UniProtKB/TrEMBL annotation:
Modified residues (4-aspartylphosphate): D54
Keyword set, alphabetical order: ATP-binding, DNA-binding, Nucleotide-binding, Phosphoprotein, Transcription, Transcription regulation
The organism of origin for this protein: Pedobacter boryungensis
Superkingdom assignment: Bacteria
UniProt key word Transport: no
Coiled-coil regions listed in the entry: none
Name of the featured protein: Sigma-54-dependent Fis family transcriptional regulator
Amino acid sequence: MIDANILVIDDDDDILLSARLFLKQHFNQILTCKSPREINVLLSKNDVDIILLDMNYQKGASDGREGLYWLEHILSIDKDYVVILMTAFGNVELAVQAIKKGATDFILKPWENEKLYATLSAAARLRQSNKKVKKLEKIHTSMQSDMARKFEHIVGNDDSVQQLQKTLLKVAPTDANVLILGENGTGKQVFAYELHKNSLRRKQFFMHVDLGSLNENLFESELFGYAKGAFTDAKEDKPGRFEMADGGTIFLDEIGNLSLPLQAKLLSVLQNRTVTRLGESKERKIDVRLVSATNMPLNEMVAKGTFRQDLLFRINTVELLLPPLRQRGNDIVLLAYHFLNVFGNKYHKTIKSIHAKAEQTMLNYSWPGNIRELQHVVERAIIMADGLEITENDLQLSPQKFGNQAVLQADMPLEEMEKMMVNKAIEKHKGNISKAAAELGLTRAALYRRIEKFGL
């Protein structure tokens, strides 16, 4: 059985019956219709791979002009459709004309079953090849920056990190959905990529989707794709992130920021394992491994009715809770040396060590921005350093700067602490959202949501 869906269009009932009876033994799905005027509806509701199209429909017609017209119409919908023309009145000139206009092949009626099977088998292989090429082109165009990104690897000797790595190695080879929890900057994306890298899908795509920066109006078109003409700027068909990740892993970052209506749409896709592009009604099967992440308290949100319990059940077959950097002890220094090596090479600076006082300063600091903040601090220190060693002054972490933050971490609920940190960052930068977001390790969109959430 060949995995291909075939649409046969002919005004002769006997031809349609004969084609259906023979082809259903060899191909996944066979659709038939008597008039090419039904093409638009059939193609919008079904995932068709090959179209077997008669060339004459009006009584007495034999010049094939109707077939050539409908061939052009089909290819205007999607130039990658594989169309095979058929007629009882074939000639060489007509066959050449059909091929020039984009037909894949040309057969005569009545056909020989073996020849028809061979023609359609070759067409199915061509269609699958075209789909793979198209997918790669779309990913290259839409996801070039993501594909070029160099992912960090997990660095840490702390017991909590070692235990997380053991759990990760157990879970990675399965297709279990994983939810990664932790404060901003704790390395959730790094762990997500490690899951993919150690999975059976490691040779396929790792698709990172930042739901926190995704405009709500673009959610469906970005994640599920759209058809040509679905909206004003939809000038061509475009697969969504789920389709692009087919066979691989999709990482939904900041999933706690989704509104309830968008949660419902996501849940439907995860339950049915299908997506429907905007402007279409046909469902497309997807095979992805889901990894999600958030810094928000989802269980509390479920209790408050702001996060769907059924969606939480769906995404957290396994949970990984990443510890904040302040609880990882000497991993702070270990990570600092890791970044020292990375950014020393990047900026062509020969800095081999960190002074003991600088190390102690880092160990005393509460790191509200976690690993992301440490990375920025070390990068800045390397740029500013004059000698061969990072000093306390190079870090620009004064006791006054982090003393209050340490108290906040210990004495306040997480949400209240986050509110105060957001407020302080905005005040510090006099309302400059870009600078405040950069200091907090957030995107502008994510910071705007927190401002709205806390009523600031």
